[in-house]
Amino acid sequence: MTVLVHTGGCQCGAVRFRVDGELGDASVCHCRMCQKAAGNFYLPLVSVRQAKLSWTRGEPKRFQSSNAASRGFCGDCGTPLTYEAPDGVALTIAAFDTPEGIVPKIQWGIEAKLPYVDHIPHLPGEDTMADQDATSFLANLASYQHPDHDTAEWPPEERG
User: What is the pLDDT of residues 90-136, one digit of tens each?
Assistant: First the structure.
């Protein structure tokens, strides 16, 4: 029997996680608390359910966002990581190393959905390097973001 393993973490690599087992339901939440926690239009989450969640590097700091829930995030870079409530833990989908396979099945909190969110897929789209005004800036850009997998070379040498 093969056990599913999912890994992920924050942008800077200070907090990493591993989930052993099948993930639960994936969703998008539009409620105002999730908007604020994500600093975004909505927050994509996936339930851990019966799978085993372990923190393999560091652990999130937590903010008690209501009387019933707390939000976990990296204390160094601020990446949102968890929604923790009495019925279980959910992880932010984009924090996974391979988020493309975690597909939301429902939207919650639609009473707070921003009025333009449904229009976003109809906006024109361009590759990053298509912005001619930013080409020289982007060509010399060095990312300090943790790679989408664990590696023995991380963290990199001190940056000057």
Answer: 999 999 999 999 999 999 999 999 999 999 999 999 888 788 787 77
DSSP state string for the chain = -PPPEEEEE-SSSSSEEEEES----EEEE-SHHHHHHHTSS-EEEEE-TTSEEEEEES--EEEE-SSS-EEEE-TTT--EEEEEETTEEEEEGGGBSSGGG----EEE-GGG--TTGGGGGGS----GGG-GGGHHHHHT----SPPSS--TTPSPSPP-
Number of domains in the chain: 1
Asked, for residue 134, whether it belongs to a domain, the answer is no
- 95 within a domain of the structure (yes/no): yes
Q: Which residues of the chain have pLDDT under 70?
A: 1-3, 151-160
Task: Residue 42: give the domain boundaries.
Answer: 5-117
Output the pTM of the full model.
0.87
CATH (domain of 74):
2.170.150.70
